[in-house]
């Protein structure tokens, strides 16, 4: 028997293959349920289900400038309005500030 790799889980040994955890989460090797996955925090995202690894900083991607993620449990960061800008790792649409002009 082999353990599931990071980013996957198997709830029982009878399962023939490992399953992906929901988008926006990640897990370490050998997880037996998605409850073992941890949601990426606001301002970060995971676009490939459980992106393997053990810490949020290494496994969840930071939202780029001019985008934000309120919940973190998402596969994409939301873009600011066309005339607004934000810092990387923004967590709210209120972080998007209108540009001059």
Automatic annotation (TrEMBL):
It comes from the Eukaryota. Residues 21-60 form the TNFR-Cys domain. Gene3D superfamilies: Tumor Necrosis Factor Receptor, subunit A, domain 2 (2.10.50.10). SUPFAM superfamilies: Growth factor receptor domain. SMART domains: Ephrin_rec_like (SM01411). Pfam families: Ephrin_rec_like. This is TNFR-Cys domain-containing protein.
